[in-house]
Design brief:
Blueprint (H helix, E strand, L loop, with lengths): L4 H15 L3 H6 L2 H32 L6 H10 L3 H9 L4 H11 L5 H19 L3 H31 L7 H55 L3
Helix pairs in contact: 3-8, 3-9, 4-5, 5-6, 6-7, 6-9, 7-9, 8-9
Keywords: Cell membrane, Membrane, Protein transport, Transmembrane, Transmembrane helix, Transport
Main location: membrane
Pfam families: MotA_ExbB (PF01618)
Length: 228
Amino acid sequence: MFIPFQETTDLIEEVSQEKTLSIYNLIMDGGLGGQIIIALLFVLLAVALYIYFERFFAIKAASQVDKNFMNQIRDHISSGKLEAAKALCDNTNTPTARLIGKGISRIGKPLDDINKAIENAGKLEVYQLERNVSVLATIAGAAPMIGFLGTVIGMIVAIHEIANSGGQIDIKMLSDGLYTAMTTTVAGLIVGIIAYVTYNHLVVRTDKVVYQMEAKSVEFLDLLNEPV
């Protein structure tokens, strides 16, 4: 049987439209339970991105240390200009400078006391660098579980529809539950992956700053041990 070209084109367009479904429609067709879980996941995603970018720029600023900083500290201490060395540290807003400044303020006391003061100051600086980073780890673990919760809710809805169908199973009756199950799982995994990757990236960047602080602290202590 011959089918006119125009009817064939309309049929193809109709099938194409039926197979196309936007993310918005997926969320809206997922029922109230799915919409609540998706909204919660979006909030978690926004929190994760905010923490990541806020910490990223803070850690980036903390890692920027002038290459001549320690040379200037060495010159000031060798010349006995402790106030100038302390002023240089105060004017340099980095964790390394604050550690060195803490050590300079303890010059004249036993070396063990100076080392202890630097260690205590270092712990405070690391705490500041890692502030709120643990929240990313929590989101990385919680988001997939929240998504799986939506999956369970969606399956319960689907089973409920089957139980009330009286033996007449209609796929349209199951769509809300299936949409909830699939969309929340995907959303939870996406948020979890993003939070996991950003968390590990911040940990690596923080470790680099900590190693830098340790290296400069050792260099400062070696400077104090040099013979006059």
